[in-house]
Specification:
The protein is mainly β. It is built from 7 helices and 45 strands.
Length: 697
């Protein structure tokens, strides 16, 4: 509490200073305000900590002043002391002069006890450090509060100074600082500037409102509007319609703000307990400034206590369906108070809110039933009964549900549409049914139209738009939905038509595979096994010369596409690579098939070799073969041999410039036949040469 009160004091000092607009303030270890009274200037200050206050009570405060008539005359070297000796609290024996009962100043006794008393708290003599620190804060806070309320107490506590040697035509600058050495306790100097000719008026407090309770009245006024000017208040009440007032408290009323922001109130509130309701009282407040000055009383406000005790709530409600649109409501109330006005029956389609009265005049206090002839069979019908007394107080019963039997289901939902985005988010929409008692829709899903549809809504969906998420990385190409409508009695409509939605395809088709090829005279034919994916839209066939760029040479759309292609746009002797890929109906491409490497062969016959001879070298046991070929170019010779009339088999190859061949693999008793063929680099060949025959003995 002590820190809250001090905050209130500092707030009062600072904001009061700002409101007067007659001085300025330097934030320091002291909070200072001042006020001109025309013939004097009064200064009020407060140390910002309990420690500084305690040491300043011993060392005192020093006040210095300078003055000027024009700003250009200001000279900071002209300060002079107004306190030859530091200003300290009065000695204890001197306080009796202001604290006697006839002085009617209880604040003096409070401040004197705080400054000189041995102990403010009740507890053990060996109180710990924290308790001692808390007591110091209490002493400091209560002293500042007492000084705010009582000018004499402020002067006696060394927290007030009146400068009576002033000229109304001059401006005065005061500086105040604790007379303690900075090495002993940190402190600095507070400054304030006051124009002696400007006197600030005390504003009139204003009561904002009065809250009339039973045997109690709350008087409220704005904290923000009054804190800049007033530290405390007197609350006064009149019982004779404003002719005479008396104060409701012996001490001024203080309402410090809560340090907990959750409990902060923008109003100051005084609660007055009264014995008699409906008796008018007049209230007014008197503000007390930090200089201890009372304001003029506020304008009075009239208030009275009122009956706020409601009658008992009706209980044991029952709602009985009578057929058609009629529901009978019954209730109980054993003890009816004497000021009972009657009952009101309300109905809503929501058990917690929205109840509307079913009649304008209160039912007699003796009535215990009411028949609703207008119940809506297509909505929920909840009922409450309220009891009300002549003062307008009332209580409401618990709600009861009026059950109306409904076995008619809603019509089949229509207009079901949907779309799927690339991430698999599904948006479904449908038309709202015309039935008033529809409470929602159930949504069902399947991966195939002939599968069992599974419900994907936990409860009836209260909208005509529904969002779902499906897998897109799957070989299942479509998703299927249908819905049913549900009414308030949980009657289900027939299923809607099935909605078929295509999934966004993120899985490319499987690649085709080459299965065969044929190289013919002037053509190359390739065959393949097509992609096995169901959603294939086309196959693309590519070709390139080895080391060159791929080019598309054929496109095969549709599912029943060819599986072979004959390429006649070739050049004999050229090496070609073929590849093929599949593309599905979403534009996704398969991997390219592993390339097929083929060479276009020149099937035109070149001239055969001539003058083929085969000679037996008996000594070396070998056959030496020679021939003639009068042509040049990129080619080679292949030598063939047949043994004993068998098939010709290649023996080896020679370069174009070598026209001899030696067969060292011969055996006696065998007959050998020889032939030579020319094979060109572009794949073309000559015919076989004339054959020569030789028998080895």
């Amino acid at each position: 509490m002590q820190k809250i009160l001090f905050i209130s004091l500092l707030t009062g000092l600072f904001l009061s200073l700002k409101a007067q607009d007659t001085d300025s303030l330097h934030q320091s270890s002291l909070a200072v305000i001042g006020k001109s009274y025309g013939d004097s200037i009064v200064l009020r200050w407060a140390p910002v900590s309990a420690g500084l206050w305690a040491i300043s009570n011993q060392q005192g405060y020093t006040i210095e002043r300078l003055s000027y008539m024009r700003p250009e005359d200001f000279d900071p070297e002209l300060y002079r002391k107004l306190t030859p000796q530091p200003l300290k609290p009065w000695p204890l024996e001197q306080w009796a002069t202001i604290g006697r009962p006839e002085k009617n100043n209880p604040m003096a006794a409070v401040a004197a006890q705080c400054i000189y008393g041995k102990n403010l708290s009740i507890g053990k003599k060996d109180a710990g450090y924290f308790q001692q620190a808390g007591e110091m804060d209490n002493r400091w806070t209560l002293t500042l509060l007492a000084a705010d309320i009582s000018p004499a107490t402020a002067a006696a506590a060394g927290l007030r100074f009146a400068d009576r040697d002033i000229d109304p035509m001059r401006t005065y600058v005061y500086r105040i600082y604790p007379a303690v050495s900075p090495e002993i306790y940190p402190r600095d100097t507070a400054y304030i500037v006051i124009n002696a000719g400007e006197k600030a008026a005390i504003p009139l407090p204003v009561i904002a409102s009065a809250v009339e309770m039973e045997n109690q009245i709350h008087i409220e006024w704005s904290r923000e509007e009054h804190t800049p000017y007033f530290t405390a208040f007197y609350i006064e009440r009149s019982e004779d319609r404003g002719k005479t007032y008396r104060r409701l408290t012996d001490l001024p009323f203080v309402s410090p703000p809560s340090q907990d922001s959750a409990l902060y109130s923008p109003h100051m509130v005084y609660s007055d307990s009264i014995e008699e309701n409906y008796r008018p009282y007049f209230y007014r407040i008197v503000g007390i400034t930090p200089f201890g000055e009372p304001s003029e009383p506020s304008e009075p406000i009239m208030a009275m206590g009122r009956d706020r005790t409601p009658p008992p709530a009706p209980r044991n409600l029952k709602a009985t369906y009578l057929g058609g649109s009629q529901v009978k409501i019954t209730w109980e109330m054993p003890d009816v108070p004497g000021d009972m006005e009657g009952f009101y029956v309300g109905r809503s389609d929501n058990a917690l809110s929205g109840f509307q009265p079913l009649h304008t005049q209160a039912l007699s206090p003796s009535v215990r039933f009411f028949t609703d002839t207008n119940a809506d069979p297509l909505k929920a019908n909840f009922y409450v009964v309220a009891s009300k007394d002549t003062a307008g107080n009332g209580q409401v019963s618990m709600a009861v549900y009026g059950i109306i039997v409904d076995s008619l289901p809603p019509a089949q939902p229509r207009g079901l549409t949907g779309k799927v985005d690339s991430s698999g988010r599904v948006t479904l929409r449908w038309n709202l049914g015309k039935e008033k008692d529809i409470i929602g829709y159930e949504v069902f899903f399947a991966n195939a139209e002939d599968h069992v549809f599974a419900r994907i809504t936990d409860s009836p969906w209260r909208d005509t738009v529904y969002y779902d998420t499906i897998m897109v990385k799957t070989l299942t190409e479509h998703a299927f939905y249908r819905i049913v409508a549900v009414d308030a009695n949980y009657n289900y409509s027939p299923f809607s038509a099935v909605l078929k939605l295509k999934r966004p395809d993120q899985i490319p088709p499987t690649p085709p595979v080459f299965s065969n090829y044929e190289v013919g005279n002037g053509f190359i034919r390739v065959e393949w096994i097509p992609s096995s994916s169901e959603d294939v839209a086309m196959h693309l066939l590519f070709r390139r010369e080895t080391g060159g760029e791929w080019e598309q040479i054929a496109l095969f759309p549709g599912k029943n596409m060819p599986t072979a292609y004959t390429d006649s746009m070739i050049s004999p002797g050229t090496h070609y690579e073929y590849s093929i890929m599949a593309i599905d109906d979403d534009g996704l491409s398969s991997e390219e098939a592993y390339p097929l490497f083929l060479k276009a062969v020149d099937f035109s016959l070149k001239p055969p070799v001539k003058a083929l001879h085969a000679n037996l070298n008996s000594r070396e046991k070998q056959v030496e073969i020679t021939w003639q070929y009068p042509y040049s170019g990129q080619f080679r010779y292949t030598v063939y041999r047949a043994v004993n009339g068998g098939n010709f088999v290649s023996l080896g190859n020679n370069k174009s410039e070598i026209k001899t061949f030696t067969d060292r693999q011969i055996r006696a008793g065998h007959t050998y036949e020889y032939a030579v063929k020319v094979i060109y680099a572009n794949g073309s060949t000559s015919g076989f040469s004339p054959q020569v025959k030789l028998k080895v003995e």
